[in-house]
Design brief:
The complex is a heterodimer of chains A (about 280) and B (about 250).
Chain A: H1 9-45, H2 50-57, H3 60-100, H4 107-122, H5 125-138, H6 148-174, H7 177-185, H8 190-220, H9 232-243, H10 247-278
Helix pairs in contact in A: 3-4, 3-6, 3-9, 3-10, 4-6, 5-6, 6-8, 7-8, 8-10, 9-10
Chain B: E1 5-14, E2 17-27, E3 32-36, H1 43-50, E4 58-63, E5 66-67, H2 75-79, E6 82-85, H3 97-107, H4 113-126, H5 142-154, E7 160-164, H6 172-187, E8 192-195, H7 199-205, E9 208-213, E10 216-221, H8 223-226, H9 233-242
Parallel strand pairs in B: 3-8, 3-9, 6-7, 7-8
Antiparallel strand pairs in B: 1-2, 1-4, 4-5, 9-10
The chains are: A mainly alpha (about 280), B alpha/beta (about 250).
Amino acid sequence: MTQGWLPSERELERRDVRRRQRARQALIAAVVTVVVFTLVGLAVVSSPGWPRVHETFFDGFHARQSFSAILDGFWVNVRLFLLCEPVILVLGLAVALARTARSPWLLPLRLVAVGYTDVFRGIPTILLVVLLAFGMPALRLQGVPNSALFWSGVALVLSYGAYVAEVFRAGIDSIHPSQVQSASALGLSRGQAMRFVVVPQAVRRVVPPLLNDFVSLQKDTALVAAAGVFDAVFAARDYGNFNFNYTPLVVVAGFFVLMTVPLARFCDWLQRRWMERERAGAI
Amino acid sequence: MTAVLELVDVRKAYGDKVVLADIDLSVDKHDVVCLIGSSGSGKSTLLRCLNLLEQVDDGVIRFGGEEISDPRVDPRSVRRRIGMVFQSYNLFPHLSVLDNCVLAPVRVHGVRPAEAAERARELLARFGLSDQADKHPDRLSGGQQQRAALVRALCTRPELLLLDEITAALDPELVGDVLTIVRDLAEAGTTMVLATHEMGFAREVATKVCFLDAGRILEQGPPSELLVAPREERTRQFLRRVLPPLG
């Protein structure tokens, strides 16, 4: 009967009303957005100290002058982030799984996992960076790098690994026990149930908080500046202290924002895809 | 008397797939309308169209004389007058049974919390759930959960109750508990539209039975006619399969 059907007049009329409602909402959205942003902009620009702030923080000349040094420094931040992130994911998941293990043989592992999250979540990241970056090279260990960059990277991994482990554990705990039961009923071992049923669902659930932690990590790569590593923040401060102008700091801020936005969009896209696949038609 | 609910030529399609077509139905006050038909015949979709969880693609739905398929009608103003119970209970797991029941009266209807709780406890007691009021839904058996869901729907004193295969997820022993309650509600004059697979129950309480097939109401009438001497061959075929042979 698909061919034989033509919308009735009432339906056409309703479509017309819906179209008008949509147009009206779009108009409201556009007007409100323009008005709000214009007002905010005017409030900032018309403040009494604006010329001074403009000169110290938003100076085009200094932005151009410091740009290449900041770019070089930023490359350190990017590499640090890209190397640390996968290690943190693996470490975090491993610790979370160790904490949920129930086998009596694995009790020592559970204790280590609990102790690790307790200690490393408690220590401020900047302290950890300074302690490791200055302390570890002093041990003169053989076979591992002794640079401050390497050890501040290790500090970030240890600190964030503990956070991410807790995120993963929350995700695993949130999966309803009936899922484990139906996996057991199919004959899967506890480990298999974790690997094929629980963890895949848990990971999907924790993507937004994980993203939060990674955006935070991207910014915290700037903490290596405290250990004297020449990253973007260090480069900007160096330039600023020499030229008495803070514009480079704003440039660095811009760099960090540019780095985090693509990651946020990627996660949005990933979540939408999962949702479309799994929730189609559900009540 | 104007009908509580009136559907004229209602149509609903998902893309090319037509799930409801040419639906004409009228529900009077105190009517109990049973929708029967095989899975996928459109029973659930029809119920979901009635409280505007789905937008119809054509036709008119009137509730209390007012056209609710008009896009200018606020769906919430319609839904607050209609109760709905789902096959899978859909109780909120993070709230106790009592809190599930008072949520809408307090937040949507502006009833004072003490008053709402009193009414909820009264209804829970009537349905044999006094002991369960302060537990969380997951602690209850399926039959208890479904009765709690019924109470939750009744707490707002709806003018119309929609029940979507509410016994389909229950084991046979518990089906009776829930159906007894629905029967009591029917006798008390509650206006209901329900999708069901319980033919015996439909025969007993329905004032009108509609047989849906491929998104159309193939046949409708009082249970004494439709369930005993159906006009259409397709209806006979369906009933032969679901009805136990009459002894």
